[in-house]
Amino acid sequence: MTTRQPSPLEGQIQRLDQTPLRDRVHSQLEELITSGAFPAGSKLVEGEIAGLLGVSRGPVRETLQILSRDGFVDLRPRQGAFVHSPTEKEVDHFYEVRRALECESARLAALRINDDGRLRLSRLLEDATKLLEKGEDPSALNRIQIHQEITQLAGNPLLDGMLKDLNKRWTWYLSPFDPTLRRRAWDEHRVIVEDIAAGDADRAVRAMGEHIERSHANYVALSRGEVSQ
């Protein structure tokens, strides 16, 4: 009988057969914050969250520390944890970075588009139109992900990873559903898709830049209680 020799890596790596509890807690709580289920400024009580998620307070406390590091939560001495309220300057910085990455994504997608990619983009636009006609929000979490599809077509895994990280904040900063504003945004998406499908990188970059700038302006206007343009 052959005796199994222990691997020198045992004890140093974690099996991948189950996501650790702390990671699942982090994913769930982060989504509750970015989706607006826990609004900006609201207090996050460890015991209440632990009961909601059906876990002990330990992984919740650990998750709050991580979310504080990532800028989603404020930990205040003797007061507790609160959902962070993004400042206008933070949002400005976000949109500066997002504009640069999304424009490069659109440029590369226009240069590398193929017939299959054109078909996928066209179908996403059709699906979004159907949702808007029913009064539903195609930009809601995990619905029609047109920007992610464009990034896939760009064919740059590093760029894809960077934008996936930014998308958490984009979801957080997404303005409340307004049928007029959202339809306008999807009209802008249609122009971007048409330019990408035509292989016109310059026009795709310009259309994407204008779209991101409009999204930024809408967020700022709404946060100030002004009328969006």
Give an overview of the whole structure.
The structure is a single chain. The protein has 2 domains: 21-83, Winged helix-like DNA-binding domain superfamily/Winged helix DNA-binding domain (Arc Repressor Mutant, subunit A); 88-223, GntR ligand-binding domain-like (Four Helix Bundle (Hemerythrin (Met), subunit A)). The protein has 9 helices and 3 strands; from the N terminus they run αβααββαααααα. The protein has helices at residues 21-34, 46-53, 57-69, 88-112, 115-133, 146-154, 157-173, 179-197, 201-223, and strands spanning 43-44, 73-76, 80-83. A 3-stranded antiparallel β-sheet has the order 1-3-2. Strand 2 and strand 3 form a beta hairpin. Helix 1 (21-34) packs across helix 3 (57-69) and helix 6 packs antiparallel against helix 7 (157-173). The longest helix has 25 residues, at 88-112.
**Order of helices and strands, N to C?**
HEHHEEHHHHHH
What is the subunit arrangement here? Answer: single chain
| CATH level 1 class label of the largest domain | Mainly Alpha
Overall domain count: 2
**Biggest sheet character:** 3 strands, antiparallel
The helix tally amounts to 9
N-end to C-end Cα span: 77 Å
- Shape-level CATH architecture of the largest domain: Up-down Bundle
What is the assigned CATH homologous superfamily of the largest domain?
GntR ligand-binding domain-like
Mean pLDDT: 88
Question: Rg, please?
Answer: 21 Å
> Which percent band covers the strand fraction?
under 5%
Tally of DSSP β-strands: 3
Estimated structural class: mainly alpha
Give, in spatial order, the strands making up the sheet with the most strands: 1-3-2
Which of globular, elongated, flat, extended, rod-shaped describes the shape? elongated
- Outline the low-pLDDT stretches: 12-17
Here the CATH topology of the largest domain equals Four Helix Bundle (Hemerythrin (Met), subunit A)
